[in-house]
Amino acid sequence: MTTQEVPTSQQPLNTETGAAIYSPAILKLYNFGVLGLSNRYLWECPTETVLLPFFKEHLGLKHLDVGVGTGYYLANANLTPSHQIGLLDLNENSLRTAAAQVKQAKVSTFMRDVMLPLAEPADTGFDSISLFYVLHCLPGTIDQKETAIANLIRYLKKDGVLYGATILGDEAAHNPIGRLALKLYNQKGIMHNLADTLDGLQRMLERQFQSVQIRRHNKVALFVARN
Ligand SMILES: C[S@@+](CC[C@H](N)C(=O)[O-])C[C@H]1O[C@@H](n2cnc3c(N)ncnc32)[C@H](O)[C@@H]1O
Description:
It is a single chain. About 35% of the residues lie in helices and about 20% in strands. By secondary structure, the chain is of the alpha/beta class. The protein has a seven-stranded mixed beta sheet, with helices on both faces. The protein is globular. The relative contact order is 0.17. The structure holds S-adenosylmethionine. S-adenosylmethionine binds near residues 67 and 137.
């Protein structure tokens, strides 16, 4: 399968609310609140035993982290001076917080909206790109989120890997507290994922990559895609 262009002629979607929430104060609470409590009790996909090992498994020497949050995964990925790390995010607070976590490796930051046709990538040839908890923040249907994937492919080396995790929508049969949080976050525009499904994600990624592996850990889809 060949990489496909995604039409960009429609009205741009509003991506602001999915990124604006990450103020310095929210980022201070993020590791405990989201990575600690929410991942365990709401989405039932623990950070330390599921998501962090998955992050480390596919991390290449030249790696681009997209939607960086606090930089928790990079901070705990045993980076070495041989690693070259790119950080891409729409939010300056996230970029600054995450960059401060990457002490052992070379770091470049890119303040970009993954949903906008990216200008010529500032850097290319990444061995790996991680996209953890970003797709559920992006507006639109899972098919519209393909724009982000098509944009990021240009950063990836020919045999590189794009991998990530995203919280599924209603189809995941959320527990009562998860259902409440999902509804609230979608109402506020922090998440846009009520209709995101595992099959929809698989089909969307398969339009851009030859090989796609997806597994589900409770309410979270974990995907690995390569050409
Ligand atoms: C839920 S946090 C995820 C942080 C981290 N990857 C994790 O899993 O803990 C989402 C991150 O994606 C960024 N983000 C949201 N929408 C974006 C967009 N359209 N373009 C680039 N970054 C975006 C936010 O600013 C934030 O840093």
